[in-house]
Specification:
- Two copies of one chain form a homodimer.
- In chain A, 25% of the residues lie in helices and 34% in strands.
- With 256 residues, chain A is of the alpha+beta class.
- In chain A, the strands form three sheets. A six-stranded antiparallel sheet of chain A has the order 6-7-8-11-10-9.
- Chain A starts with 17 loop residues before the first helix and ends in a 9-residue tail after the last strand.
- Chain A binds a DNA duplex (19 and 19 nucleotides) through α3.
DNA sequence: TAGTGGTCTAGACCACCAA
DNA sequence: TGGTGGTCTAGACCACTAC
């Protein structure tokens, strides 16, 4: 610990900005195990006096590591090395529901409802669901947790013909749809990454600006009718999506 | 412009921190089109005097928007609204190479090589490629650009039996492998999101901490032998991966 | 050369948490 | 109540860009 926050070595002119040097020292200490998950760091003011830097500079180094998910800070309490997070792997090629997916691997699932209502659709929802003029929409918004850890924010929209009573969904949306004979058999997903805004980050228990996996899904019935339009935001540090790929058809047989 | 940086309204006690209020004002102006892509913002010092805030506070607001990809800053030049980026969509279910994928949609592809060498493998590479003790590895690292815009960093590792001469790869790795009769026919990918470090961010031309899509791929021959181990980092703001899902086999027929 | 963003400082007050 | 992180300020110097 003394070595990390030693005032020595900060005067090398070619070593870059001071906050980056400190950031690198702390990151190296975590990577090297000298700072283990759960360990506390000295208070910001103490790090400042120990290193001979100003508190603002120390804060800039720490903030970068908080944003990257390597440290966590609790006001009034202190700064700590982030706990090791167990990465969940989910197969992306199968159309399963969150609830079923977690049950399959023996995890508990809790949902915290943010909204479960009938409302006026956004232009995006009108487009995706093919709604008529004046038609309203069922919207389900919830934070998904597994074993107490928030994993994803899920915002599902369905036409009222598909789901007249949103309040009837307690846990699995797909289970409700299945009862109504309206479970999707095919879906198209689009995946991208983006930085989480303050609100979404708080819901997921990570720092503002942390990387999240954004997944947009449109589910279809066998008839081709759209049943669901879902936008999810997964914690980037807690989720791995696995996909199996096969050779592109147009290239088949031309190999070798 | 005057409205955005007006000193009025910053005294409301319930509106949260000043830097968040300013951040919201600027973000709203961009979303509402009052600030269009390419537009320049006043200098930081000017924004500070206009709003009555300190430069540090203005900077904190601006930095957050830079991290989120909504603004770009150029030292000595100014602060600008980020140009609209064209999102590329790539099918995730087919095993295609970057080069072929871009060619199919009529885009030019350039590679900037970071490394193309035979070297000592990392433990991760030994594991993924199933290398023997003392065996060396061919490593290909490059930044992929399309129409001049950097899109991804690709780091591919192959055993020397698969690719004895890394320098023989000029554009498409898969084309070279195909010539040798070693093109993979199956691959497993793992997808997650993470914040880009300073170095990777610079290579992709985005701000440090921006969200990136991390993809790890292991490619196999028909025999089941591993041919390639590739770790890629895509710009989160420039890429959409599309996947089509079908009903999980175990649920087939139980629908309705 | 003038203007811009990038870094850094010393000091202050507030809100929250734990003993 | 004392310590912690969260916010904010005024002022300074540097490195780079554009002219």
């Amino acid at each position: 610990m003394e070595r990390i926050f030693s005032p020595l070595g900060f005067d090398d002119p070619g070593a870059g900005p001071l906050y980056l040097q400190l950031q690198r020292r702390i990151a190296d200490a975590i990577a090297g195990g000298r700072l283990a998950p759960g360990n506390s760091l000295p208070a910001e003011r103490d790090m400042a006096t120990m290193t001979g830097l100003s508190r603002v500079t120390v804060r800039k180094a720490v903030q970068a590591l908080v944003a990257g998910g390597q440290l966590v800070q609790r006001r009034g309490s202190g700064t700590f090395v982030a706990p090791k997070i167990e990465r969940l792997e989910q197969a992306l090629s199968l159309l399963t529901s969150f609830t079923e997916d977690m049950a399959r691997r023996g995890k508990t699932v809790e949902s915290v409802w943010l909204a479960r209502q009938v409302t006026t659709p956004s232009p995006e929802e009108v487009m995706a669901l093919g709604l008529g003029a004046g038609e309203r929409v069922a919207r389900l918004e919830r934070v998904r947790r597994s074993d107490g850890v928030p994993l994803a924010i899920e915002r599902a929209s369905l036409s009222l013909q598909t789901l007249p009573d949103p309040a009837s969904v307690e846990t699995s949306l797909y289970a409700v749809l299945q009862d109504r004979g309206l479970r999707p058999v095919r879906a198209v997903q689009r995946i991208s990454a983006s930085n989480l805004g303050a609100k979404d980050a708080e819901l997921l228990g990570v720092a503002t600006g942390a990387a999240g996996l954004r997944i947009e899904r449109i589910g279809y019935l066998p008839s081709g009718r759209v049943v669901e339009f879902t936008r999810s935001l997964y914690r980037g540090d807690a989720y791995d999506f696995a996909v199996e790929l096969t050779l592109a058809p147009s290239l088949e047989g031309s190999n070798g």
